[in-house]
Automatic annotation (TrEMBL):
Gene Ontology MF terms in the entry: DNA binding
Organism superkingdom: Archaea
Gene Ontology BP annotations: double-strand break repair via homologous recombination; response to ionizing radiation
Keywords annotated in UniProt: DNA-binding
Protein name as catalogued: Replication factor A1
Length: 422
């Protein structure tokens, strides 16, 4: 007879294992583990794992968190794509896609060729969860049990297009509704020989992003409204780029899209949620000028900043002088690094490369230009247009143009005076 102390635990383990082990066997294992001071919860997990079972917790997709390790979900497969990858030097075929229930949709990765078909409803038991690029992802391993469900199981989910502002690095199975702002064909050299690709700019009502199509498609024409299915994203020059492959479907769409065409002003707070952006404007105050500003020396080969004429890649080199400003801009909602190149440094602050070299020589100090820029630039309100990347070095805006917004300052001052009744 089973001890009343263990009865509820035995029942729970038995439910997870089914016919894989008898109650007597489970009791013997449980008593042994408890005898060796293994906590009951851990002992239960150990026994379930020993006999190939799962203690999955049933959840809806909206209830899943990044901390979940073993869940049971009933979902509809909205998208599934076979991919060949290399893991630790071994070639492997995996599945990626999107699953959904009536509460949410999430990307998934199956680390082997599981029996999953687009459009079917399945119960997945023994799935686990990972957070990748700040996005929850369902992972399916060899121990995941798949049970086909009635297609009329009550899940009415359809795939939801991803807004361009929400595209993340390494995202797969992207569905995007957008307008083609630019499309240009070019020939590139690949391992398989010369290839004609199409590159350009896509836009929706949230953002603009570059795209590259590795296959020619007649729907990729300027001003066309298109629906892209099963694209993927890679970061190029710090900005997520939509990649279109042979597995991607592109079709004309009659839906109305109001695309972002001109550069639009955004808050730093909103930009920091993204992994990159192109052609955006921010306005804010310069709160500091960082070391590495002013007159710098670059490697003539790789353009890296060098010290004492030594490049870490190319060794001793003849340095090429350059001028830049590395600063921090704050708009009241957040801050990021702002970089001005030599052209903008001269246009905005008046320091050309030749003038910077002369100042450095006259003062016999390599820091004199940086100090002068700091005195002149810190505290100023500046407007900047450019591209933003948000990676391992933080958020960085590379300016394409910059100006001191005098009219805006007047308007802000007038508004402030009115608020105070002056």
């Amino acid at each position: 007879m089973i001890d009343d102390i263990y009865a509820p635990h035995i029942a729970e383990i038995k439910k997870a294992l089914g016919d894989r082990a008898s109650e007597e066997t489970i009791l013997a294992d449980l008593e042994k583990l408890v005898k060796y001071r293994v906590p009951v919860a851990e002992a239960k997990r150990s026994i379930i794992k020993k006999y190939g079972g799962t203690d999955s917790v049933k959840k809806t997709l909206s209830e899943i968190t990044a901390e979940d390790r073993d869940v049971e979900i009933t979902v509809k497969v909205l998208e599934v794509t076979k991919r060949d990858v290399e893991i630790r030097g071994v070639s492997r075929t995996i599945l990626t896609g999107i699953v959904a229930d009536n509460t949410a949709q999430l990307p998934f990765t199956a680390w082997s060729e599981l029996d999953l078909t687009k459009g079917e409803v399945v119960n997945l038991r023994g799935a686990y969860v990972r957070s990748w690029q700040n996005q929850i992802q369902i992972n399916l391993g060899d121990r995941c049990d798949i049970t086909k469900q009635d297609e009329a199981a009550g899940i009415k989910a359809e795939i939801m297009p991803t807004k361009l502002a929400d595209v993340k690095e390494h995202a797969n199975n992207l569905h995007i509704l957008s307008v083609v702002l630019e499309a240009n064909e070019q020939t590139v050299h690949t391992k398989e020989g010369d290839k004609t690709i199409t590159s350009g700019i896509l836009a929706d009502d949230t953002a603009k992003l570059p795209f590259t199509s590795w296959v020619q498609n007649p729907n990729l024409t300027k001003d066309a409204t298109i629906y892209i299915e099963n694209a993927y994203a890679k970061v190029f020059r710090g900005v997520p780029t939509i990649n279109i492959s042979e597995q991607t479907t592109i079709s004309p769409s009659e839906k109305i899209v109001t695309p972002v065409v001109k550069a639009n002003q955004q808050s730093v707070y909103d930009l920091l949620k993204r992994e990159g952006a192109i052609d955006i404007i921010i306005k804010g105050n310069i709160v500091c000028v960082r070391p590495g500003s002013g007159l710098i020396m670059r490697c003539p080969e790789c353009k890296r900043v060098i010290q004492q004429n030594i490049c870490r890649v190319h060794g001793p080199v003849a340095p090429v002088p350059d001028v830049r400003v590395k600063s921090v801009i704050d708009d009241g909602t957040g801050s990021l690094t702002l970089v001005l190149d030599a052209r903008l440094t001269e246009e905005l602050l008046g320091y050309s490369i030749e003038e910077a070299k002369k100042m450095t020589s006259d003062a016999m100090s390599s820091e004199v230009v940086e100090e002068n820029i700091r005195e002149q630039f810190v505290g100023k309100m500046v407007a900047v247009n450019g591209n933003m990347s948000n990676g391992e070095y933080g958020a960085i805006l590379l300016a394409e143009s910059a100006w001191f917004p005098v009219d805006d300052l007047k308007e802000e001052a007038i508004a402030l005076l009115k608020e105070r009744g002056v």
